[in-house]
Amino acid sequence: MIPPKPPSRPDRVSLWRYMQLFRQDILSAQPARLYRAWMAEFRTPFFRSYLVNQPELIKTVLKERPKDFPKSDRISEGLRPLLGNSVFLTNGEVWEKQRRIIDPAFEGGRLRETFPAMWAASEAAAERLQVGETEIEEHTSHAAADVIFRTLFSIPIEDSLAGAVFHAFRAYQRSQPILNVAAFVPLPGWIPRGFRRETKANAAHIRSLISQLVARRAAEIAAGTAPNDLATKIMTTRDPVTGDMFTPDEMVDQVAIFFLAGHETSASALAWALYLMALYPEWQTKVAAEAQALQDCDFAVMSKLPVTRDVFRETLRLYPPVPMMVRETTSPETFRKRLLKRGSQIVISPWHLHRQNRLWDRPDDFDPSRWSTQNGKACQRDAFIPFSAGPRVCTGAGFAMVEGPLILARLLRDIALETVPERTPVPVAHLTVRARDGIWLNLRKRQR
């Protein structure tokens, strides 16, 4: 049984039809040949972009020469209303300064310090689940948001402000694809984008709510009553080079991307992991057996979840939350004997790379055993970039690799999952890889 992926379009299709498909869903718009190509050129009267699917070229762009391939300004077209000037969108010195302030909050022992908050969120998520037929994405969104609020601001999602942010974000998430035509075509601002007005209004509402959270924490810091959580750490850290701290507006930008990166992506990965557990009951049984170790809030328990961790890695391979990344050439480049002009778009697609026919053994199969140290030759770790790679690798990658396996194991400790006939989820790209009509599972109490 092979996990579903969206139907790819034929290799030849009209430009107009391609634009229609692209606007609806970028995954279905891509031709099937991209799962075996090292590089592909998209040439139209309006733009040229190049999908790079070869590890050596990806290494050049992301690791060896990242400053020569900054994030495309066009990619911010749809995201800037929400993310402002956050670390996700900036380049150059601004980005470097932001990372110098943010990174210390996620270093070393900070994972141990945030673990009790993750544990509390996983316990709350388990308590919310009810037996019967359930749309699981809604629950994983709730759980991931709860983790963010508990670790960032030391408040559960039941807090009135936290709950308001969560519900506003739910309204926003399906109105804005991570990539759209504007990411590639330099359209004038007056051309309608369809969702532009609604997206901006939703983003403004979310930012106003986050501003209240930031202001509340700033007052607590001033009064000396702030908890020692991620928000306090970031808001009180000075850039070691300039001595600057984030202004309130800058902190709103960063909280917005923390919520996007830490909530949307985690919710996506966890939902697909639960679906795969229902699809592959033999692996579900293995995870449930490991989950019996989850009895006490002790960070050391994570060392007892090797199978669960491999299951989560394999989920990230098949369903990377961020399916595509866009970079831009700052000077002419030659890739695979092709000349790329200055300003060309380079698309790096974890979605295609992780299923590359030339790189992976049985690329469409779900096989967590490929990640075990005893079976290391069965996977291509240099072709696995769910958190990007190089200097711009996701700051919260280590955070996610604790959160995801922990919640997955905790839920399967008490609940058994089954697929729902005739409700096979179809992956599509919104802010992250989600299911077109949700992920429906049948939940029952696990017999011990």
What is the compact description of this entry?
It contains 14 helices and eleven strands. The protein is an alpha+beta fold.
Structural class by secondary-structure content:
alpha+beta
Care to count the β-strands? 11
Strand order of the largest sheet: 1-2-7-4
The biggest sheet amounts to: 4 strands, mixed
Question: How would you describe what is shown here?
Answer:
- By secondary structure, the chain is of the alpha+beta class.
- The protein has helices spanning 15-24, 55-64, 76-83, 92-102, 110-128, 136-153, 160-173, 196-223, 230-235, 248-279, 281-291, 306-318, 350-353, 397-414; strands spanning 39-43, 48-52, 132-135, 325-328, 333-335, 338-340, 345-348, 415-419, 427-429, 433-435, 440-445.
- It is built from 14 helices and eleven strands.
- Strands 1-2-7-4 form a four-stranded mixed sheet. Strands 3-11-8 form a three-stranded antiparallel sheet. It has a two-stranded antiparallel sheet with strand order 5-6.
- Strand 1 and strand 2 (48-52) form a beta hairpin.
- It is globular and about 60 Å long.
- The two termini are 27 Å apart.
Descriptive terms for the model:
single chain, 448 residues, alpha+beta, four-stranded mixed beta sheet, three-stranded antiparallel beta sheet, 11 strands
Give the arrangement of secondary structure elements:
Blueprint (H helix, E strand, L loop, with lengths): L14 H10 L14 E5 L4 E5 L2 H10 L11 H8 L8 H11 L7 H19 L3 E4 H18 L6 H14 L22 H28 L6 H6 L12 H32 L1 H11 L14 H13 L6 E4 L4 E3 L2 E3 L4 E4 L1 H4 L43 H18 E5 L7 E3 L3 E3 L4 E6 L3
Parallel strand pairs: 2-7
Antiparallel strand pairs: 1-2, 3-11, 4-7, 5-6, 8-11, 9-10
